[in-house]
């Protein structure tokens, strides 16, 4: 692909380490500023997502907690990048089928983009606009669409010449490999015959060799017929190598289209706005753009010149830029990442606990049914709540009923939460809950002997206003 000679891994590693050591101060300062900025941005996004931006400024003073927060956010971003890269890797494998034609790989990339985009469009259309169809029907339809697109491209475009040239080059390489293998085996046999002393054959061995020769003479015609049929089959397959190569390319493109389900799911989850009739077309267009951006690293890798290390570096940069484009197209993705990070660091808890609130909050300030309030001291009350935000000394408590809310709904209800400080709140362990014993049906009734005795003695008349039914239950 390039006239520049390929560098070895040792040379690349030595050159990279030398450059890092030369600019170590600048690199550390830049990374520190980027990490601090990322921490501030993601923390602001989380407070904005839950509708409490007023908690952002008091939280940024805790530098140690901010460092741990940035590390976890970066790990989650890498996981998102890995999920988005599923289609990237499969599309790269599709182009690598033509590794024997390095000079034509830039053209091949642009040719293969066509059926891939057609498959993406069909997948998005079936997902968002034809969701009533059966899953297997969608699967078969996508398979047919991808295969038809690939074979039409083979029949109607100059891609046919590339396919034929690839098969010829591969056949030439295969013949050269077989020649080298045969030459190597001949040399090996000569060495063995030269070093192996001749031994007289034993009588029993000579007898078995005679039987084996007779068996070979009898079965030789059959073996020759089988060999002739096998050679015919091989020639038939070789004559249709172009067909099999297009079929293999179609299979790889189809798997790439199926892997598009992961970026589409991420795009759907990252939509944080209110659902309207225009939501489905908007999210569908957003998903389509996201899938197009996932193909960008492969295009950059195969179209830019240089050795394998330089092109890999360019591809990684393109992947990071594609992820940045995804976050700009879908701002809710970063909110989703920060929300998962908050759950992982217990900034946002999943269960309700008991909290003794500071004396500034009075019993009449809260709704008893919403907060399950209880007076525990002369000036203190206890509530049942969960922690929606806790960073440093800043604490946001919300009622237990808000645990079931989705992320996009929190900003509408977080105004009912209590903003306080961790140093002023006492966390209490949950009270044990014991299951009640189920009472049997007869346990609530009067024994039968008492009913009969009551009828004989008529003691119900001694208690005014009380009588028993026929089943023995007391009634007033």
UniProtKB/TrEMBL annotation:
Domain of life of the organism encoding this protein: Bacteria
Keyword Membrane: yes
Keyword tags: Membrane, Transmembrane, Transmembrane helix
Transmembrane segments: 21-46, 66-87, 108-130, 136-156, 242-266, 286-304, 316-334
Name by which UniProt lists this protein: Membrane protein
Source organism: Pseudomonas chlororaphis
């Amino acid at each position: 692909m390039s006239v520049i000679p390929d560098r070895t891994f040792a040379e690349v590693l030595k050159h990279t380490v030398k450059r890092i050591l030369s600019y170590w101060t600048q690199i550390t300062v830049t990374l520190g500023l980027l990490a601090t900025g990322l921490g501030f941005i993601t923390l602001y996004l989380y407070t904005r997502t839950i509708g409490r931006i007023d908690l952002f400024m008091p939280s940024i003073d805790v530098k140690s907690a901010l460092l741990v927060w940035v590390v976890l956010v970066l790990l989650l971003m890498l996981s998102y990048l890995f999920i988005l890269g599923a289609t990237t890797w499969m599309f790269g494998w599709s182009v690598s089928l033509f590794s024997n034609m390095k000079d034509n790989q830039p053209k091949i990339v642009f040719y293969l983009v066509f059926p891939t985009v057609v498959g993406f469009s069909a997948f998005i259309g079936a997902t968002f606009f034809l969701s009533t169809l059966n899953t297997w029907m969608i699967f078969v339809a996508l398979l047919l669409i991808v295969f038809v697109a690939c074979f039409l491209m083979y029949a109607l475009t100059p891609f046919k010449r590339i396919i034929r040239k690839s098969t010829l080059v591969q056949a030439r390489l295969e013949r050269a490999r077989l020649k080298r293998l045969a030459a190597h085996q001949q040399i090996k046999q000569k060495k063995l015959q030269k070093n192996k002393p001749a031994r007289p054959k034993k009588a029993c061995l000579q007898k078995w060799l005679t039987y084996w020769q007779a068996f070979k003479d009898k079965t030789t015609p059959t073996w020759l017929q089988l060999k002739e049929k096998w050679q015919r089959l091989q020639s038939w397959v070789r004559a249709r190598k172009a067909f099999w190569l297009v079929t293999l390319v179609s299979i790889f493109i189809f798997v790439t289209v199926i892997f598009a389900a992961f970026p589409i799911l991420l795009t759907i989850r990252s939509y944080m706005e209110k659902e309207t009739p225009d939501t489905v077309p908007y999210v569908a267009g957003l998903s389509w753009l996201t899938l197009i951006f996932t193909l960008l690293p492969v295009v950059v890798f195969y179209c830019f010149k240089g050795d394998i290390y330089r092109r890999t570096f360019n591809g990684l940069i393109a992947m990071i830029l594609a992820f940045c484009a995804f976050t700009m197209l879908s701002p809710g993705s970063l909110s989703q990442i920060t929300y998962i990070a908050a759950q992982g660091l217990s900034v946002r808890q999943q269960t309700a606990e008991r909290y003794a609130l500071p004396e500034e909050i009075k019993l009449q300030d809260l709704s008893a049914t919403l907060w399950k309030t209880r007076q525990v001291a002369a000036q203190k009350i206890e509530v049942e709540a969960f922690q929606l935000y806790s960073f440093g000394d800043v604490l946001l408590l919300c009622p237990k009923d808000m645990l079931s809310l989705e992320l996009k709904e929190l900003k509408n209800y977080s105004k009912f939460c209590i903003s306080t400080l961790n140093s002023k709140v006492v966390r209490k362990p949950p009270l044990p809950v014991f299951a009640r014993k189920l009472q049997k049906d007869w346990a609530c009734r009067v024994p039968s002997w008492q009913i009969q005795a009551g009828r004989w003695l008529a003691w119900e008349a001694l208690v005014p206003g009380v009588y028993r039914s026929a089943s023995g239950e007391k009634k007033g």
